[in-house]
Amino acid sequence: MTVLKPLNVLVVDDSLTTRALIAASLKRDARVRVIGTAATPLEARDLIVQLNPDVLTLDFEMPSMNGLQFLEKIMRLRPMPVVMVSGHLASHKGLVEQALRMGAADWYSKITPEGGVEPFSGLGDAIVRAAETPLSVVATSHNIDIPGSKEGVVIGIGASTGGVEALTDVLEHFSESCPATVIVQHMPKQFSESFARRLNRIVRPEVRLAEEGDILRPGTVYVASGGERHLRVRAGARQGEYVCQLVAGPPVNGHRPSVDELFYSLAKTVGKHAVGVILTGMECDGAQGLLAMRHAGALTIGQDRASSVIYGMPRAAFELGAVEQQLPLTEIGQAILNRCERRSLETYP
């Protein structure tokens, strides 16, 4: 591979001196560009989301969790080329092998050889090798699907008039391994199945009608069937596992299933690990439930007026203070994924 432009590199090391030495060394290498440095996994998590680096250099010893733990986290939630940089790796062959098995593309020793060699003078070569390593080799085999969704994150979406097109736009941003997603779209029962089949044909995740007892899994979108029962999410048998629950009951806000019923259940069961999204639709269904989600620590997003077919449900939620971020439809899908990525990386082993 020929590097046509500098590789954007994020340097993660708890030592201020080491971060400065690495940045100074890489500044002399035209093939790479340091776009940020982080002293802790928490800082690194935020910068990965904000800066989207091409390659990460990762120290082995850091506060709150070691580099191998953070490497495992990255490989499952945000696969990318990683170069392990540590004094330990030179003298502990087992750590090198473990890092490579977990998905690291290369490693580099902090110990500077004798003979007047500049510190970290060969790190640029390791970074370029990491970038040249096919991502399928580096990380894809380390992705792990667990019940509940990626690290327990669950996305809940509510929509009504105009929602068929809006949901299509949002879900087209999702990958095959997106967090588990549950949807209430107001529509008659006879159209629910064809709607789910249509979505399943045109988006990458699997889309299906929610059934009683379905365990929420990554890469799957669960659509509530119209007319008969409300869709809620309850805790499963194992920690971090969530399950679809279909509940008989009167209409809520004139609707069955009701967006409020779904959102209230997510607030209670998933809490801060949920993302709530309210899209175009008439009246106010979902507003109170979304507020409950926000109070529970969930991330909440609402569609803006300009892109809504009917600015009813999003408006009610926004005016109630339930919407943390209001966005045009074209930006919502990616914003959801960015928030899920950030939330997933917050959940340490």
Automatic annotation (TrEMBL):
EC number: 3.1.1.61, 3.5.1.44
Domain of life: Bacteria
Keywords attached to this entry: Chemotaxis, Cytoplasm, Hydrolase, Phosphoprotein
Enzymatic reactions: L-glutaminyl-[protein] + H2O = L-glutamyl-[protein] + NH4(+); [protein]-L-glutamate 5-O-methyl ester + H2O = L-glutamyl-[protein] + methanol + H(+)
Top EC class, one word: hydrolase
Entry's localization field: Cytoplasm
UniProt modification remark: Phosphorylated by CheA. Phosphorylation of the N-terminal regulatory domain activates the methylesterase activity.
Active site per database record: 160, 186, 285
GO cellular component, one term: cytoplasm
Free-text note regarding domains: Contains a C-terminal catalytic domain, and an N-terminal region which modulates catalytic activity.
Name of the protein: Protein-glutamate methylesterase/protein-glutamine glutaminase
Organism the protein comes from: Gluconobacter kanchanaburiensis NBRC 103587
Lineage: Bacteria, Pseudomonadati, Pseudomonadota, Alphaproteobacteria, Acetobacterales
Gene: cheB1
